[in-house]
Write a structure and sequence with these properties.
alpha+beta; 7 helices
């Protein structure tokens, strides 16, 4: 992993530890990733993440969102779920793009989080989007300008959430949380803040 990715992963691991939330990062074997690559495009930085910090059991927890990051072992199955129907035929809705790689899901809403591999940058990274499930078409909304920034935003959200405890929160608490999160996202990823997904 490059230094930016190491920093993002370390920050995320640290907040899980600080909040005493069980989490399991492991390693994914090169053979497994080579097999996945036959079905799913893995950008270089995301591949490095899986090799050294495969999210075997990673579920973020905030008052407004719970995100499960998928381990390498589940990536092909998850991707197929968006491209094939229950009978393994191509879905009639063609709004899901081949360049989108599902990396996680909202445990609260079922919405996917996915990389757009058509927008690779010089570091082998790409933006992360989300889209509302259960609609006629997939309408992507920017969650982070890169995978590294996505991990930093998840960590920042988990840090802000620490002050809210584990009790159920009401609408007012959700608004307070979003207002507290916005200034934490601004220095990480101004474009993601403007997109409005997190706030």
């Amino acid at each position: 992993m490059d230094s930016d990715l190491v920093e993002a992963v370390s920050r995320l691991k640290a907040v899980f530890e600080k909040r005493s939330i069980p989490v399991v990062f492991a390693t994914a074997g090169k053979d497994l990733l080579d097999d996945i690559k036959k079905h799913v495009r893995l950008p270089g930085r995301y591949r490095s993440f899986l090799l050294e910090a495969n999210p075997v059991n990673v579920h973020t927890a905030t008052p407004v969102e719970r995100i499960q990051l998928f381990p390498a072992e589940d990536l092909v199955r998850e991707q197929i779920g968006f491209t094939l129907d229950d009978n393994l035929n191509p879905r009639k809705d063609d709004s899901w793009r081949k360049s989108w790689v599902v990396i996680g899901r909202s445990s609260l809403l079922g919405d996917p989080y996915f990389l757009d591999t058509s927008k690779l940058d010089a570091e082998g990274d790409c933006p992360v989007y989300t889209a509302m499930s259960g609609t006629d078409r997939w309408d992507p909304n920017l969650a982070a300008s890169s995978f590294v920034q996505f991990l930093h935003i998840l960590a920042a959200a988990m840090e802000v959430a620490e002050g809210f405890g584990d009790a159920d929160v009401g609408v007012d608490d959700e608004e307070v949380f979003r207002e507290a999160l916005a200034p934490r996202i601004r220095p990480i990823d101004p474009a993601a803040l403007r997109a409005g997904h997190w706030t």
